[in-house]
Write a structure and sequence with these properties.
By secondary structure, the chain is an alpha/beta fold. The protein contains 16 helices and 22 strands. The strands form 6 sheets. Strands 12-13-14-11-10-16-17 form a 7-stranded mixed sheet, with helices on both faces. Strands 7-6-5-8-9-20 form a 6-stranded mixed sheet, sandwiched between helices. Strands 1-3-2 form a 3-stranded antiparallel sheet. Bound molecules: nicotinamide-adenine-dinucleotide. InterPro entries: Ald_DH/histidinol_DH, Ald_DH_C, Ald_DH_CS_GLU, Ald_DH_N, Aldehyde_DH_dom, Aldehyde_DH_NAD(P).
Amino acid sequence: MAEAETTINITQKGSVTASTARPDGPVIEVRNPGTGEIVGAVPDSDADAVTAAARRLREHQRDWEAIGPAGRKEWLLKLQDWLIDNTQTLGDVVQSETGKPRVDALIDPRFSIDLIGYYARRAEKFLADDHPAPHSPLGRVKKLTTVYRPYPVVGIITPWNFPLAMPALDVIPALAAGAAVLLKPSEVTPLSALELARGWAEIGAPPIFEVITGGGATGSAVVAVSDYVQFTGSTATGRKIAAACAERLVPYSLELGGKDPAIVLADADIDRAAHGITFGGLFNSGQVCISVERVYVEAPVYDEFVAKLTANVKALRQGLDGPEGAHDVGALANESQVEIVQRHVDEAVAAGATVLTGGKRTGVGTLFEPTVLVDVDHTMSCVTEETFGPTLPVIKVADEAQAVRLANDSRYGLSASVWTGDKKRGERVARALEAGAVNVNDVFSNLFNFALPMGGWGESGVGARWGGADGVRKYCRRQAITVPILPTQQRELIWFPYDPSKLRLAFGAMRAAGARGLRRVGISGTATTQGVAK
Ligand code: NAD
């Protein structure tokens, strides 16, 4: 659970969690980026605290594994109830440390609730032993079983853009798999993750989930004690984690940055494309790994699309407070994000781009105006680097082929969208794109379908989260068990001492099962001019 001395002091929306004494030792202060107000302070945990947490988790993990998926389902569904009962409070906490509008803040608990339902109910089926058919008749003498046994301690390290959902999206499948979880949330937004730990404690669940707060050094210490590392964050940090895991020979999965393209083809419903791309690029102020970050539009509809997109973006309501639905776009997470967004806009303008709307901060906290950029080319940082902010650079293309070529011209490959009136064409273009997910006539749709894998190609990641059974099996070591079906002899044919006649029989049977044509019985065929044996 969260360390008892953690201070959480939410003032923006009234008192949420009673404050206790400021933690002893080094602390990290948490600010609301919209107002600059300090909303909490958490321990900056050192490597000893991380090691101690991992030791505690290991002590209890075997019991958690032993209760099986059906037992774990009960606890996960209790956590789901807790999330439902506390949704508004959790929204307060998320809002307090992110400066998101109310709707965006509430997405964190709501999304987590949906995911718990999926994995809590299906884990039993996903983790059931497999009995694969033997690859050859010779294997029929054994019962074959694949068993899914969890990694004891899964370390999960998360970023700040969805401070409750981002942790929950990986914590839930790992817990469902039977692992114990050590979660290190972003130092920018640790309070929401601590709420998840509070929920786990309040439902009285077994002590197999702990949150440890701190910065990069704490994250490194988590990597050093975990049996599997699930990381979400920047590509730069992902590289360091991959190297550290390689050194320890522990497996990992990395969900990293993106520069997602949207392709608008001339036969598209331009109104839908303009609305979808406005949302896809500017939801959560563009701080979504799968935000639309660059738009390619076929020449015949370019002017119409740009006019509609700009009108949509100008109409957005930006602000911090207010009830659900009062504002569409809120704050950026911190000053560093503002600096990146401003730099991308300024560099583009200096190189000849035009700002059609937005382009600067609003003057309130870290709020940055939703921005549309045109006259953009593929050398500009706003097209080549991840912005993670509220900008939409739009590029005119001659045709579909050029759009696909430019969309694939990136070191990232997280997701993409294709907008077209022809669904078959959309699917064909999707298959030509180098991206882990492609949505036709939609944005983020893959994210709301847990049966699909969510993973990046290229520098956007290694491995994937979710994807049905894979989402829990990834947190498991697979164990192969063979048990004889038929009565056994004293010795198998190929055991010592080697006996040429028995070996001939054994290897002859293997060749008969695996080879083709006359080679099955040891007669070589003749190679044809195509090199195919008769
Ligand atoms: P970040 O890489 O700076 O930090 C992420 C986490 O890693 C934080 O908890 C941080 O404390 C920790 N960390 C930093 N150095 C570490 C180290 N050496 N060892 C271990 N842990 C360390 O990323 P960020 O700025 O918090 O998040 C923004 C990035 O996250 C963007 O690039 C975004 O695209 C990416 N992201 C990806 C996905 C996805 O699913 N692909 C989802 C959300 C965000």
